[in-house]
Amino acid sequence: GNFHAYINQNPLYVTEESKRLLTVAVHNDTLFLTKINVMDYSLLLLVDEEKNKLTVGIIDYIRQYTMDKQAETYYKMAIDRVAMKAVAAGPTVIAPPEYRDRFREAMDRDFIASPFFFRSNIVAADS
Prior knowledge:
single chain, alpha/beta, 3-stranded mixed beta sheet, two-stranded parallel sheet
């Protein structure tokens, strides 16, 4: 969506300390969400270019992975196999542990630590 379009044009360089704080916050928040069986959350990113500051938080975390979501996952996987589609991205509805891992990987990839860049002061949502 909009986030990926933004980072393609404006890489998100952060200080090494900001990256460490973000990684810890995302790890803790996604661990909690996984424990309560929640998936399909998103990252809210606010960019203040005047202050050279990023503010992030996890939002949209109200969807639990219930039997109907599990059935939707299996149904979509079966349809993809029957249609012989490439499933490189995987199903859109996935179990909380897989969603957590995919979310963490995206955060690690999309926020780049740099000791020489001053877009810092990431403020993570309360963990």
